Amino acid sequence: MQHHPVGIIGSGKYVPERILTNRELEQMVETNDEWIVTRTGIRERRIAAAEQATSDLAYEAAVKALEASGLSAEDLDLILVATITPDMFFPSTASLLQARLGAKKAAAFDLSAACTGFIYGLATASSMIATGMYNHVLVVGAECLSRITDYTDRNTCILFGDGAGAVVLGRVPEGRGFKSFELGADGTGGELLKIGGGGSRLPSSQASVADKQHYIYMAGREVFKFAVRIMGGAAEEALRKAGIEKSEIDLLVPHQANIRIIESALNRLELPPEKCMVNLDKYGNISAASIPIALAEAVEQGRVNEGDCIVLVGFGGGLTWGASVLIW
Ligand code: ACO
Question: What is the CATH number that goes with domain 178-327?
């Protein structure tokens, strides 16, 4: 599919120190630890400190990814941040990160595809390297979902957390790197998962804030059904494009939204649980940051070896979905 093989040459993650447990949520809304664990698999999540914004989390993850790649910030040609919780509308979080890193040569932009943003970002960045336009791109998924979560809404507040994951992409030897991407969208489902206010349709006002339009709205059951259908399907399509069989997968790194959604994908792909990276018990759903954090953690834990077949798969607001097959 590409002129030059492109792959991940460094990864890193950062999660804030503050832990919000299910027990604490029991004090905030009508819920309980048992319900949250059995319905979602989540036990705790991380919450950014008051002075931390998304670019601060992104910075910590980016520094680690650069270190792991052996490159310095000046080597970067592009910084791409996937997020739905930018520090502000503009400048982009990628621009703020570019300044903080001192990546003087790098272009910078944000990408908005909700929880699928990181996979959309990988597809975009790897194409730019494959065609010879760039040599090194930093792709970050970073979110402060706690800032757009209504902590009086038990349908959503139990799910989300904060954090960032980053990778550096560059050329890799023949036979390695990204083998395929499968990206998709169904805008007719946009209403199921959204922040309605604060944009040009409904600018922020006292009324929009009183109506909680600055918070995430989610039709949980509908999103759940969509996710179960699309996770396995997207991964299968990416495998088909790569010419790789399900049985050849060494590690699945799925979006960390709900353990039941992940289990349905494992069933469809006929994979045992030990071939799947799961950390939602510790971090909850961190939208665009979930997949890069899970990938970086898998690398830290020595679960990713040279030549392994890794499948990344995610879904989210838009509605959007994406999957990628890569050889490490
Ligand atoms: N504690 C206790 N009870 C609850 C809670 C809670 N935190 N939340 C909901 N309930 C209740 C509901 O009110 C409902 O009660 P009712 O039957 O009296 O109406 C009952 O539990 C069952 O509710 P469901 O919505 O059917 O529960 P479900 O099993 O579907 O789980 C959940 C809800 C966890 C939200 C699930 O639907 C889900 O994971 N959806 C997908 C969410 C997701 O993956 N989002 C990803 C994208 S996020 C992004 O892009 C930023």
Answer: 3.40.47.10
In the three-class reduction of DSSP (H, G, I as helix; E, B as strand; rest coil), residue 14 is classed as strand
Q: Does this chain's domain 6-175 share its CATH topology with 178-327?
A: yes
CA of 39 to the centre of ligand 1 (A): 8
Fold held by 6-175: Peroxisomal Thiolase; Chain A, domain 1 (3.40.47)
* 113 ligand 1 Cβ < 6 A: no
* Token duo for residue 266: 């494992």
Residue among 35, 224, 229 whose CB has most ligand 1 atoms within 8 A, to mutate:
224
Known catalytic residues?
A: 115, 255, 285
Instruction: Write down the pTM of the prediction.
Output: 0.96
The answer to whether the beta carbons of residues 93 and 83 sit under 8 Å apart is yes
Q: What is the pLDDT along the chain (328 residues), one digit of tens a residue?
A: 447 899 999 999 999 999 999 999 999 999 999 999 999 999 999 999 999 999 999 999 999 999 999 999 999 999 999 999 999 999 999 999 999 999 999 999 999 999 999 999 999 999 999 999 999 999 999 999 999 999 999 999 999 999 999 999 999 999 999 999 999 999 999 999 999 999 999 999 999 999 999 999 999 999 999 999 999 999 999 999 999 999 999 999 999 999 999 999 999 999 999 999 999 999 999 999 999 999 999 999 999 999 999 999 999 999 999 999 999 9
The residue whose CA has the least distance to atom 8 of ligand 1 is: 155
Rounded Cα distance between 226 and 220, Å, is 10
Q: Is the CB of 316 under 6 A from ligand 1?
A: yes
The amino acid at residue 41 is G
DSSP β-bridge partners for residue 12: 166
Rounded to whole angstroms, the Cα distance separating 97 from 157 reads 28
